[in-house]
Design brief:
Number of helices: 8
Largest sheet: 2 strands, antiparallel
Shape: globular
CATH architecture: Alpha Horseshoe
Number of strands: 2
Number of domains: 1
Structural class: mainly alpha
CATH class: Mainly Alpha
Helix content: 55-70%
Oligomer: single chain
Order of helices and strands: EHHHHEHHHH
Length: 221
């Protein structure tokens, strides 16, 4: 099962990953956007880390809702509202449970992705973050690793697409040949989730050395 500490560690890992990859995100955004995605996401997730340390939430859902509110208030452009909506809606769907399973998270995250689609008026294939998030949510039913891999594949698949939504859509055919920065940052966040789950599974295994490894057991979800 996934407890509150798991979600805090996931967002801390996401902040570390975004910080490490901020320059690459900005380079991607400079080709088809405003060249600020990396800096905006870096600032937003640093603020999320600070907010979670200042007032630690009591449940997984509360962790995500606080993170979402923080992103909305600190991230510029469209990314703040979109990522904020993703996390807030996911957190709301989780409710006030103290612990959730991987299937619970998959269902809640699906609700978050649907809310993002409504807010942005986009769909998979439009060269947006949905191209990474949508396949990741479907694959999360299998495993965390599968979700991360699906998000990576979805982000790479945006390269040949022509953008139909967002700032990149203004470029028309010139947006073809560039990887979408929002899909890329989404894939990074899913990679942080998979990394956190892998560490949790390893910790559980270390605590019970006589047990056979099972990456798909609830303890590793």
């Amino acid at each position: 099962m996934l407890d509150t500490d798991f979600f805090r560690r996931w967002l801390a890992a996401a902040a570390t990953t975004i910080d490490r990859e901020a320059t690459r995100l900005t380079e991607l955004d400079s080709a088809i956007g405003d060249a600020d995605h990396g800096a905006n996401m870096q600032r937003g997730f640093k603020a999320v880390t600070a907010a979670l340390e200042k007032e630690p939430p009591a449940t997984p859902g509360a962790v995500l809702m606080l993170a979402g509110r923080t992103l909305i208030s600190t991230v510029g452009g469209a990314s703040g509202p979109l990522y904020g909506t993703l996390l807030r809606r996911t957190g709301k769907a989780l409710g006030d449970q103290d612990q959730v399973g991987r299937e619970d998270l998959a269902s809640a995250l699906r609700a978050g992705v649907e809310a993002v689609a409504v807010l942005g008026g986009a769909a998979p294939g439009d060269k947006t973050m949905l191209d990474a998030l949508t396949p990741a949510v479907e694959a999360l039913g299998e495993s965390f690793g599968a979700a991360s891999a699906a998000a990576d594949e979805g982000a790479l698949a945006t390269v040949p697409l022509q953008a139909r939504k967002g700032r990149a859509s203004y470029l028309g055919a010139r947006s073809v040949g560039h990887q979408d920065p929002g899909a890329t940052s989404s894939a990074l966040i899913l990679a942080a989730l998979a990394e956190t789950a892998a560490v949790s599974a390893g910790t559980a295994q270390d605590a019970a050395p006589g047990a056979a490894p099972d990456s798909d057991s609830e303890g590793g979800r």
